[in-house]
What does this fold into?
Amino acid sequence: MTTNGWIRVAIFGVICLSPWLCLVNAEGHVHQNANKLNCNRYEGSWVRDNSYPLYDSSKCPHIDKQFDCVKYGRPDHEYLKYRWQPQSCDLPRFDGKSFLTKFKGKQIMFIGDSISVNQYQSLICMLHSSVPEIRILTEGRGHVINNTFQGYGVSVILSFSTHLVDIVNGPNGRILKLDSIQNGELWKQMDVLVFNTWLWWYRDGPKQPWDYIQIGNKIIKDMDRMEAFKLGLTTWANWVDTKVDTQKTKWNEPKLTNCAKETVPVNGSRYPTGLGRESYVLQDALNRIKKPVQLLNVTILSQLRKDAHPSSYNGIGGIDCTHWCIAGLMDTWNLLLYTELM
Ligand SMILES: *[C@@H]1O[C@H](CO)[C@@H](O)[C@H](O)[C@H]1NC(C)=O
Ligand SMILES: *[C@@H]1O[C@H](CO)[C@@H](O)[C@H](O)[C@H]1NC(C)=O
Ligand SMILES: *[C@@H]1O[C@H](CO)[C@@H](O)[C@H](O)[C@H]1NC(C)=O
It folds into this structure.
């Protein structure tokens, strides 16, 4: 990785776990950050703000039809009008030009499932609205998509990966290799990495993208999914530590909550059901990483936004209470990422 001046401290952004984000500092230097906020910016509430949304989604040509709620007929626009207000400090205003200037010539990669697609498209819209005159060169399709803001040479890249660890084709089917991360070779070359994984770990039936699980030399048909998740995250945590410069419990797929007709956030700063067990597994994996790790802990602020899902207002049909409308909540995730990086 190229290093000079402040970019020595280029941050390895890591969304560890949807919907958490965590950042790993590339070289162990702590980035002296003028905007460093001395407060827990993840504790707060949603407040109405007339200056929101941050951009007009109809002017952003980079939104999948899955997320483009206004285009697909969402009649209420109130959900666009909320700003995250931490309890004891204010977030900076997003300034796309300074971001592009600061990250000139750098590559920012989002690695993970469709939530990563969701988040990276929001970031592209936020940047695009700051510099609408700048051309965006899009290269690649499928699993790696590279969008470069020409003139600044800033690349915002998506690397699609359901589990972060490898899925390979074996003689008898697809194998989820809980102890292997081959794609890491590409990831290592990036200046910022934003990881995210969670959604796919409990999927089974036709939605399960593997046939066997491999751990070391052992191949098994299935295992407790939380345990698998823990092993996968441990592999990831070791990968971060070594490669980045610088069974017993039953698991049920969470019920799809019905998000239709929700038009306002939960009022307040606490969500009634609290945090799931996966958040403690994540906490464990993070504690094991020796490199400095920052967590963008967006779980609770996202739970409060039951109004911000596409529901039926998407271009692929069905009710979607998993992803988030663009514009919308993802812009706040990116504002928090911006706050970490600037
Ligand atoms: C992304 O595109 C830019 C501009 O073409 C290129 O310099 C960079 O190497 C590409 N990155 C990847 C990972 O493909
Ligand atoms: C939230 O609750 C507070 C106090 O209970 C109330 O003053 C405020 O108007 C409510 N906000 C919204 C957005 O409903
Ligand atoms: C995220 O924040 C919540 C509330 O502030 C806290 O209870 C939780 O432990 C945090 N999660 C992690 C993984 O640090």
Notes: The pocket of 2-acetamido-2-deoxy-beta-D-glucopyranose (ligand 1) is lined by residues 107, 137, 139, 146, 148, 155, 157 (CB under 6 Å). The first strand starts at residue 11 and ends at 17. DSSP finds seven helices and 14 strands in the chain.
